[in-house]
From TrEMBL:
<dbReference type="InterPro" id="IPR036812">
    <property type="entry name" value="NAD(P)_OxRdtase_dom_sf"/>
</dbReference>
<dbReference type="InterPro" id="IPR020471">
    <property type="entry name" value="AKR"/>
</dbReference>
<feature type="domain" description="NADP-dependent oxidoreductase">
    <location>
        <begin position="32"/>
        <end position="267"/>
    </location>
</feature>
<dbReference type="InterPro" id="IPR018170">
    <property type="entry name" value="Aldo/ket_reductase_CS"/>
</dbReference>
<protein>
    <submittedName>
        <fullName>Aldo/keto reductase</fullName>
    </submittedName>
</protein>
<dbReference type="InterPro" id="IPR044500">
    <property type="entry name" value="AKR5G"/>
</dbReference>
<dbReference type="Pfam" id="PF00248">
    <property type="entry name" value="Aldo_ket_red"/>
</dbReference>
<dbReference type="InterPro" id="IPR023210">
    <property type="entry name" value="NADP_OxRdtase_dom"/>
</dbReference>
């Protein structure tokens, strides 16, 4: 499945188009570096920016978006902006208020995608009701979840009027989430990868290095290409302009079926982030 270019999109189950490739900004502080990273990404063709309330950087993301639009002549509708409601704000009224705060910090009139960040037991269903309300009122283009396992999704959908459009999870060659990927495909929920490069821990892996050498690509490019060929949206993080460009240079080659299988076989159920079934925040 060869995606055309960095601006290529998939269609969510509600008809909204979401870019296959975007910029993640986890652990990037507010400030000029983040503003410039967002501007560089948009300049080089990225159309998707992913942030979250807990990242504490929505103001700089918003500033970067405004400056990028001004400098490129693009309009707001050309970009796809995602944020997420944090755990302390899960609840109907609290989630509605959190959405307004995120919009205010970003300086935007709407989000393209709003996600429940973590499946906090006993709280995510009320939060989902708030997201459904925002969606039905036309305040947000798409709604979804993050870090939900199959049983969380089943539980949520028992009472939901609208099924999630996206599930953003940790996904990389050592955590291939095979069951979850299959389930989301069956339910027409788009899977999206956070930490696709396992926070840099895979960049000297011998099997990935061998495949990368064959194509004249970096290990990071091979992993990101693997994401796309699995039909998984990917949002690698970088603040360096040259790396932002390099990460997106994955549309001129295609991994062979045997190579996809080799990479799949690296799975160790190994996480760099918290376990969605065992977290305490």
């Amino acid at each position: 499945m060869l995606k055309q270019d960095v601006k290529g999109t998939t269609v969510l189950h509600n008809g909204v188009r979401m870019p296959w490739f975007g910029l993640g900004v986890f652990k990037v502080d507010e400030g000029a570096e983040l503003v410039e990273a967002v501007k560089s990404a948009v300049k080089y063709g990225y159309r998707s920016i992913d942030t979250a309330a807990i990242y504490g950087n929505e103001r700089s993301v918003g500033q970067g978006i405004r400056e990028a639009l001004s400098e490129t002549g693009l309009t707001r509708k050309d970009l796809f902006v995602t944020s997420k409601v944090w755990n302390v704000d899960l609840g109907f009224e609290a989630t509605l208020a959190a959405y307004e705060r995120s919009l205010d910090k970003l300086g935007l009139d709407y989000l393209d995608l709003y996600l429940i960040h973590w499946p906090v037991a006993g709280k995510y269903k009320e939060a989902w009701r708030a997201l459904e309300t925002l969606y039905q009122e036309g305040r947000v283009k798409a709604i979804g979840v993050s870090n939900f396992q199959v049983h969380h999704l089943r539980d949520l959908m028992e009472d939901a009027h609208i099924h999630p459009m996206v599930n953003q999870v940790e996904f990389h060659p050592l955590l291939t989430q095979k069951e979850l990927l299959q389930f989301t495909r069956e339910q027409h929920i788009q899977l999206e990868a956070w930490s696709p490069l396992m926070q840099g821990k895979l960049l000297d892996h011998p099997i990935l290095s061998r495949i990368a050498e064959k194509y004249g690509k970096t290990v990071a490019q091979v992993i990101l290409r693997w994401d796309l060929q699995h039909g998984v949206i990917t949002i690698p993080k970088s603040t360096k302009a040259h790396r932002i460009v390099e990460n997106a240079s994955i549309f001129d080659f295609e991994l062979a079926l045997a190579e996809m299988g080799e990479i799949d076989a690296l799975n160790r159920e190994q996480r760099v982030g918290p376990d969605p079934d065992n977290f305490d925040f």
